[in-house]
Predict the structure.
Amino acid sequence: MAGKRKNPWGSSSNDDKGGTKGPWGSGSGQGGGGEPPELDEMLRKAHENFRQVMPGGDGGGGKIFGLIIIGFVVLWLASGFYVVNPGEHAVIQRFGEWTRTQADPGLGYHLPAPIETATVINVEEIRKMTIGFSEAYGRGRADGRRDVPEESLMLTSDRNIVDLDLEIQWNIKSSEEYLFEINDQENTIKKVAESAIREVVGQTNMFPIITNERQNVADRTKEIIQKNLDEYKSGVNITQVLIEQAEVHPDVQNAFQDVQSAKQDAEDVQNRAEAYRADILPKARGQAIQMIQEAEAYKQAAIARSNGDADRFNSVYQAYLSGKDVTKERIYIETMESVLRNSQKIILDENSGNGVVPYLPLNELKSTKTQNAQN
């Protein structure tokens, strides 16, 4: 927008320095507006011209008519004054072309219309717009809330439908871009915001949106809106995006409740399984360690026993080689001792009795044998 422009009288204007010449040859200033032409000189010339063209010369009727014309001229020139309040900018256009912007509060002046016009806009005011609902106002307050389904119903990444209501808060950061770069500013902002929120919702599952991810969705939406508006050079600053409502669409509410109940049941089962796992695994590990230790002990005992048996066999074999008859007798005696150790024994001397038949208490022996077996 910066640069030199040709004014309607053919002279160049410098937007940065404010060196534009008006139709009377005087310069127009920057910021507070240009100084008006010499009014006394203009009025004097206008009065002389009217005296020349009006009938009656110096008659009273001509003077009155001339004064009326002069009054209209004065009012026309005075219409160029404007006031800039704190937080406002005044954008000056000459024949529709931007010439300068006054950002400082105070009184300013521009050439009267239709030569120049001043558009005063509030750049600090926080403006609001809604998506998904509209509010009805009465006596300065909101009376009701009306849902707008074509705006609020959105499809999530898991193919569910959510009902979202948003409030977009924004202000103006560049008055020139806001006025001249885009048409229908509020509608443009709303369309960009609708596109952004649908993009974010389409990349997010339904459950996080309606529970604990609202702020994250709002922040991502704000970032996308601001990025797109900056690409358009809209001069708009998005200050905040608020998700006022996020819920399941009523048509699928019952099905959603069933799904949530099933998920809750699954979580309960999973939690119980985890608790059982946490309880049984340490026990199983302990039992496994115990079995390994017992097996290792049995291994060592078996090896030791085998080694002992081998050593004993070798010693017996060596003894057998040195005295076979004695070794055989000893082995026989040891074997009989091992076999008969737990048996009830009756010893009969073949040389005793002298023809008397010995008495054997077989029933008592059988009873004693049964008791020993049970024990």
